[in-house]
Amino acid sequence: MKKLIAVSVLVLLTTVAFAQKDSLAVDENNKYIYYQVVSQPGLPFDTLFNRALYFFKKAYPESALKLETVDKEKGMFTASGYLLVSKKTLLTSHEDGAVSFSMRVDVKDSKYRYWLSDFVFNPYQRNRFNTYESVPGIYIPLEKPERKIEKKDLLAYLDGVLTGSRKIGATLKQFMLKTSSLKKEVKLKKISTKDW
């Protein structure tokens, strides 16, 4: 009986530790961040760099995730994008707003890291055609929702951000495992027809 209790407590602690590892955290600037380091043994810098570039060019449309800077010397990519968050009611759910974010990917030999941060909420409202659209001019950082977002709504939005961040991370991991098919510039061989 004691062994069963000890094993169940151990399983509970490992699941709690794993859940804490893959969740939103707070960085040194007191902002929410989703941060992951992934090891890819045996893959050189150039391969991981090309695969990350392929991810930014092909995984999402530019309206959802836009590549902003690429620095090959540092092995760094920065991008910005947005996630739709919804609030569930008793019978339905609808998009309650969009959360914009910034994303960074750093690449080294045999590993890479990525993080999503700077989460800013833009609420949606119904327009006269009964569709939801963004409210212009209202941008609320998720770290400072004082009296602008209700607590239960904030928890739902943070859960949506975590789910969206995990999906983006899973997509990035898939692209980092595949061979990128970016077309390389082919140098054409010049032939002189005068000399033969």
How is this structure best described in words?
Residues 1-20 have low confidence and may be disordered. Helices cover 31% and strands 34% of the residues. With 196 residues, it is an alpha+beta fold. The protein is built from three helices and eight strands; from the N terminus they run αββαββββββα. It has helices spanning 2-21, 45-58, 151-177; strands at 25-26, 32-39, 65-71, 76-88, 93-108, 111-126, 132-134, 140-141. It has a single domain, classed as Alpha-D-Glucose-1,6-Bisphosphate, Chain A, domain 4, CATH 3.30.530.80. InterPro entries: DUF4468 (IPR027823). It comes from Mucilaginibacter xinganensis. This is DUF4468 domain-containing protein. Residues 1-19 form the signal peptide.
